[in-house]
Write a structure and sequence with these properties.
Length: about 230
């Protein structure tokens, strides 16, 4: 008897997810059901959509995973934002039925300019090698006396003289007091003791990040990354 041909894969430009009434296409960021109860949805980027069904149903998606900091070898660090994810080199083929919704992964600069952050907003500033734990870029600009990279969730105050940025806790004040400051000069620019109840405070922006000359290496540890299944 002649051999039966296997089902032919058909590439789709878009696909309607009936269970959430949304349409996905290549390049979309999506939330995918976690294999572990109680864990947040996985974040992924749709690389391709395919089906072996002549009617175009039962689609599968080839995805490239975003990792949350706690899923990486180095774990979550102080400068990681609550909505930060890393674009990994980890690809999978998953059923489209595991997609729970669409989301938006912003660039780092784009995220810092959002007027408000929604539940489906994330940002990415690193690519991540899931096998070695290496990041690209492997160094990032640092700020403040603590020499930490910028966390967009944290308020920082800027010295009016040298334009350096500082965390309120690192200059001996609170976030609440920093929000009320009208003027601020750091210790190096103002040898006189200051009343930090009267300085200027502003949200940290990315322009200063570009101008800084100090950098921190984004190191890796030996912890194994989480294994994902659909």
């Amino acid at each position: 008897m002649p051999k039966q041909k296997g089902a032919q894969k058909k590439q789709l430009k878009s696909y309607k997810l009936k269970h959430i009434n949304r349409t996905i296409q290549e390049g979309d960021a999506v939330l995918m059901r976690s294999s572990e109860p109680g864990k947040p949805s996985y974040v992924a980027r749709v690389e391709a959509i395919e089906t072996t069904d002549a009617r175009g149903s039962n689609a599968r998606v080839r995805v490239r995973w975003y990792y949350r900091p706690e899923e990486s070898m180095g774990g979550r660090r102080q400068f990681h934002g609550a909505k930060e994810v890393f674009l990994s080199d980890h690809y999978d083929l998953q059923s489209a039925d595991t997609i729970e919704g669409k989301c938006k992964v912003h660039s780092f600069g784009g995220y810092t300019k959002l007027g408000s952050v929604g539940n489906d907003d994330f940002f990415c500033r690193f690519e991540y090698n899931s096998a070695t734990g290496a990041f690209n870029p492997d160094r990032v600009a640092v700020f403040c006396k603590c020499e930490m990279p910028y966390n967009p969730d944290d308020l920082m105050v800027q010295c009016e003289d040298c334009s350096e940025w500082f965390h309120p806790s690192c200059i001996g004040t609170t976030i609440e007091a920093a929000k009320k400051l009208e003027h601020f000069y750091c210790e190096e620019c103002s040898p006189e003791p200051q009343d930090l109840d009267n300085s200027i405070s502003t949200s940290k922006n990315t322009d200063a990040k570009v101008n800084t000359k100090r950098n921190l290496e984004v190191s890796k540890t030996r912890n194994k990354h989480a294994k994902r299944t659909g």
